[in-house]
Amino acid sequence: PWPGGSRHPPPGTARHPASGHRLARARTTSRVSRRRAPSRTDPGARDAAAAPTMIVVVAHSDKTGTPSPLVRLRDAVWHPTASSLRSLALLGVIANAGIIVSGGAVRLTQSGLGCPSWPKCTGDSLVPTRDSGHPALNMAIEFGNRTLTFLVLAVAVAVFVAAARLTPRRRGLLRLAALQPLGVVAQAVWGGVTVLTKLHPATVAAHYMLSAAILVAAYALYARTAEGDAPPTPLVGPRLRALAFVLTAVVVALLAAGTIVTGTGPHAGDAAAQRFGFDIEEVTRVHGGLAWLTVALTVALIICLRRAHAPERVRRRATALLVIELAQGAIGYAQYYLGVPALLVGLHMLGSALLWLAALAVIFATRSRDMERLAIVDHGDELFEGQERAAVTPSARRPSRA
Fold it and tell me: What is the residue-wise DSSP string for 322-363?
């Protein structure tokens, strides 16, 4: 029984009065049935009418009162909050960046045609078979990468469902979330095109750039979950904003040039794959020139941000971008002079995804939106703190004496 002899738990009850266990989710259900009026000939009906209604309290918790990971994941998707949606959006960013690295591993291990058909692995089987004419390891790597696509799709669908069930509904977030499952499906279909064209370097390059485009939607959703829905307010001047956009455009050109170098170099994904007919040294020089231009623009942006006394958050994002550029450049020069070893090429592909995300972070840091939900602050999130300082006046942050 609950305190006071009540059959219902008092509002806000968090622990069971007898066991002391915390109730992760409690639901009170009662069954109300029509009882016939007691009669003199049926004493059992009189007893049934006098019987109390049964109350069942269902609590899903372990001995420590903490919900299981599956319960938390279910609630994050089906009963989302602003904070849980932000966590799911971050998971979407990680998943879409990870599929770039796994796709690079397929190419670097010469497993691009481990499954020579699509959507089936072989002409008559969805899974690898022994008599396909390809090594078992290469088939397993390619088939594993195809299987990971379903995991990325599951994450994208979970993000979309959470955005659709968020209360109150935010249409901007819903549109960004819808782009992720659509992008993953398009990426999977284009992956089939790369297989059917026998890993033509043009289709492989387009496959990578499509992944970069999906990352834009994924990161935009992650950034928007920490913002309100008011129109964006610039935190820097128009010239600095223009410089940031020029820098982002040069990064796009740098990534595209990297796909040309990849399509000309030795790691084709299969021995029978076609290559671009460019001179490898010439395209490498173009790629390196764009890399140095990116570094120069980033240094200029950092200097201008400091001279303009831009918000600290913007300057930190630009500095982080410069650090990633220098690390990526060091890996690039090392792999060039060491004969393009596969391990360094894989690290270079990971660095390209991080470089693109860092460039996007700079763009989103140069503007702010009205903060409408202060409850999304988690562990002193730097992104939120910077926008809160820009959106909330000092007088509004002072506690009221009343």
Answer: HHHHHHHHHHHHHHHHTT--HHHHHHHHHHHHHHHHHHHHHH
The predicted structure's pLDDT at residue 47: 53
Q: The tokens of 72 are what?
A: 């938390």
* Contact by Cβ (8 Å): 389, 381: no
Q: In this structure, which amino acid lies at residue 390?
A: A
Give pTM, 2 decimals: 0.76
Q: Are 67 and 319 in contact (CB under 8 A)?
A: no
Specify whether the CB–CB gap between 252 and 215 falls below 8 A. no
On whether the CB atoms of residues 301 and 236 are closer than 8 A, the answer is no
Pair 118, 196: CB distance under 8 Å: yes
Amino acid at 61: S
136 neighbors 129 (Cβ within 8 angstroms): no
Cis geometry, peptide bond prior to residue 43 (ω within 30 degrees of 0): no
Mean pLDDT by 10 residues, the chain (402 residues): 56 52 44 46 51 48 68 89 94 95 91 88 82 80 92 96 92 94 95 92 94 96 90 92 96 96 88 89 94 97 95 95 96 91 93 97 90 36 38 38 34
In whole angstroms, how far apart are CA 122 and each of 19, 113, 118, 119, 394?
Answer: 58, 10, 7, 9, 65
